[in-house]
Fold these 2 entries.
Entry 1:
Amino acid sequence: DAMVIQNPRYQVTQFGKPVTLSCSQTLNHNVMYWYQQKSSQAPKLLFHYYDKDFNNEADTPDNFQSRRPNTSFCFLDIRSPGLGDAAMYLCATGTGEREQYFGPGTRLTVT
Amino acid sequence: GENVEQHPSTLSVQEGDSAVIKCTYSDSASNYFPWYKQELGKRPQLIIDIRSNVGEKKDQRIAVTLNKTAKHFSLHITETQPEDSAVYFCAGTGNYKLTFGKGTLLTVNP
């Protein structure tokens, strides 16, 4: 079941200290997505890559960046985490035409 | 962009009863409508989906119906069981992206 892998599963960082979350996939999908999900809310799309093309959502803060060095890996960088960035971060992959496959998520705590 | 409305936000049923969750969407170009189930602390998992050229799809106790004219689609769960308790999200699609509804917390009481 480990088709979309996220590391770490739990991350604690200090206020303002940069943090990087990683996602890898074995599905060879060309689209990779990053979502932020806060308690009792729907996943909120931050950005996605279609192959190497980066697509940022209009309301994604500049504090969030992403890198996709190859088909298999995608990273989420939070440059200066604030208390409001504490959330579950979900990576997903897809072909763009049908379902998305979600990773198990990284629970980020900001102290 | 796409806007998806989902109702109700909470639903409580007795074991064995049916549950229905409804969604409306705004973008007539949306052509794929998945339903995800998310248990507490876990990832969303696809339970059923439907494409816009189909009006209904069924998988055991779960069915989805789509009315393209009215731009709404519904999830039907029959013979509910306690393990069906979870948050359910509908979604619309466009430009390779999913737009989620706000979710329905389904509680199945034994």
Entry 2:
Amino acid sequence: GAGVSQTPSNKVTEKGKYVELRCDPISGHTALYWYRQSLGQGPEFLIYFQGTGAADDSGLPNDRFFAVRPEGSVSTLKIQRTERGDSAVYLCASSPQTSGGSGEQFFGPGTRLTVL
Amino acid sequence: TQLLEQSPQFLSIQEGENLTVYCNSSSVFSSLQWYRQEPGEGPVLLVTVVTGGEVKKLKRLTFQFGDARKDSSLHITAAQPGDTGLYLCAGKNYKLSFGAGTTVTVRA
């Protein structure tokens, strides 16, 4: 079956611009996660959705970052007033878990964001 | 700041040699996982270890979890070029806390 898909695969923008990154999880997966991976580092947690609600947004670095999942499926990560330090690969993962966090997370290929 | 430290950062070996990568955590998680990531792709789960002292084998890969559930190792026997990739360990409490990874290169 289809895995997690992310669009666009690459995004180049200028400092100060607004960007949206999209994640299509595996059908039926109730949990969705966003991570950010900087060059030479492992992924860092940003936000976790259980259904439509953000169950944990403690990893969002500041209020320029926001994510939504209005229908409990597709999620969009939104970054306002982008800065060069936002350049990274943004990874999305989904999981079939309903609670407790025991389900395996399946990752998408990521969106590589470059802020010039 | 990453809670999990991996070593070495880079490892380059000849095909047929063995290798070991290490992961040490400052915290205890509900489980510890190992992932492999290739360029342009997301991490793919290799194994989950839960119990202190646990040993799991996956073909030529052997995973060990320390008794205190804070350290783990991944050993690859007779490495092949297809084993090349970034190996990540992650502590799991619903969300994942990753180490910085070990880049493994196996030369033919």
